[in-house]
Structures are given as C-alpha cells and as structure tokens.
C-alpha cells in the first residue's frame, strides 16, 4: 500500500510558481540580490501546462498567501485548447488579489530583452526572442550551467537602471501589443513587501 502524501497549509507570504528552470533561477537570483521575502521551491517550477499551474494555485491558496504565477503564453497562442484553459484560469482568479499572473508573449526572454530595448515588435516564437536577447547577453542559454550563475541577473537588474526601464516598458506594452510581459507585476509585488 502506497504512502499518501499530506500537505500542510503553506505559511503566509509570497509564493512564486512558474514554468521552468529559467523562471526559477531568475526569481531565486532576484530574491538573493534584492533580499525579497518570498518562497521559491523547485516543485513549484516545471515544464508544465495550464492545468498543472491551476492545480498548484489551488494547493497554495489554502494558506494566507499571494501567488506570483510566471509563465509563457506562446503555446496558448498557437493551441486553441490551451488558450481556452488559460482564459478560464485567468477569469477564475480575475478578482482574487492573491493571484498575480505574470505572463509573457512569447516568453520570459522578452521580459529580459526589454531591460535593454524599448520594443514590442512581434517575435515569431520564444527562440526569436532569445536570439534578440543574445545581442545584449551573448552567453545567454536556457541551460542550468548558464542560468545558475547569478551574474547575468545581477548585471541585467542593477546596471544603469535597467530594471526600472523594464518595469516602465512592461506597463507600456500591454497584451494588445505584438509582444508583452507582465513580469513587472511580480517586481512591483515583491517591492511592496520588501
């Protein structure tokens, strides 16, 4: 007979969940750099679908917490079924101040890019956004070997007011634009609890 896993109610605070290792390392580094008070656990990050994200939100909302949910929308734009799931999920939590959706189109690399460029041009896919980012961070790779080093986030976030510029651009380029990122909402939420 298998052992049944029992989850305790999470402790109050801000929890960050997301799609993959890029988001996990990025927010882990931000937490270290800015001393943000938030919880980041590997089990909250995985290559996942909208259904998995919804299940994690349900699990975490059992406590008195705020959830910052970071994910890419490139798949949901191409896949009607995933798009409907995403719309339902966002509608379900639309009036819930404890759930902050920080989606990016095509990917989080677009969020990184707007630290350097004032652009909302169309990127065909996440790879195109990554290639544009590599003009500014030539060594950038979606590999653990690159992502685990805090320096790329430190340089991007602290040099020449780039984080402030990215937040301004994130507010300016909404989901009506060809590319957008709501990751600025996570930064604002973390800064208010700072």
Keywords:
globular, single chain, alpha/beta, five-stranded mixed β-sheet, 194 residues, 5 strands
Envelope shape: globular
Please state the structural category: alpha/beta
Distance between the termini: 46 Å
Question: How many strands appear in the DSSP assignment?
Answer: 5
For the sheet with most strands, the description reads: 5 strands, mixed
List the helices and strands and how they pair.
Layout: E1 13-18, H1 21-34, E2 39-45, H2 50-60, E3 65-72, H3 74-78, H4 80-92, E4 99-105, H5 108-113, H6 126-133, H7 144-147, H8 151-158, H9 162-172, E5 180-181, H10 183-192
Parallel strand pairs: 1-2, 1-3, 3-4
Antiparallel strand pairs: 4-5
Helix pairs in contact: 9-10
Descriptive overview:
The protein has 194 residues and is α/β, with parallel strands linked by helices. It has one domain (13-192). 46% of the residues lie in helices and 15% in strands. The chain has helices spanning 21-34, 50-60, 74-78, 80-92, 108-113, 126-133, 144-147, 151-158, 162-172, 183-192, and strands at residues 13-18, 39-45, 65-72, 99-105, 180-181. A 5-stranded mixed beta sheet has the order 2-1-3-4-5, with helices on both faces. Helix 1 (21-34) links the parallel strand 1 (13-18) and strand 2 (39-45). The chain is globular. It starts with 12 loop residues before the first strand and ends with a helix.
């Amino acid at each position: 007979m298998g052992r049944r896993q029992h989850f305790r109610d999470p402790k109050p605070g801000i929890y960050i969940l997301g799609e993959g290792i890029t988001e996990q390392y990025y927010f882990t580094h931000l937490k270290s750099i800015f001393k943000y008070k938030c919880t980041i656990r590997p089990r909250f990050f995985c290559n996942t679908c909208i259904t998995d994200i919804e299940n994690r939100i349900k699990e975490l909302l059992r406590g008195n917490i705020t959830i910052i949910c970071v994910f890419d929308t490139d798949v949901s734009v191409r896949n009607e079924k995933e798009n409907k799931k995403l719309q339902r999920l966002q509608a379900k939590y639309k009036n819930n101040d404890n759930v902050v959706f920080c989606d990016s189109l095509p990917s989080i690399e677009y969020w990184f890019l707007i630290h350097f460029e004032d652009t909302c041009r169309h990127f065909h896919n996440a790879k195109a956004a990554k290639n544009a980012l590599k003009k500014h961070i030539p060594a950038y790779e979606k590999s653990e070997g690159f992502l685990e080093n805090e320096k790329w986030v430190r340089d991007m976030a602290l040099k020449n007011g780039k984080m402030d510029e990215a937040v301004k651009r994130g507010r300016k380029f909404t989901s009506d634009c060809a590319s957008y990122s709501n990751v600025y909402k996570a930064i604002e939420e973390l800064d208010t609890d700072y």
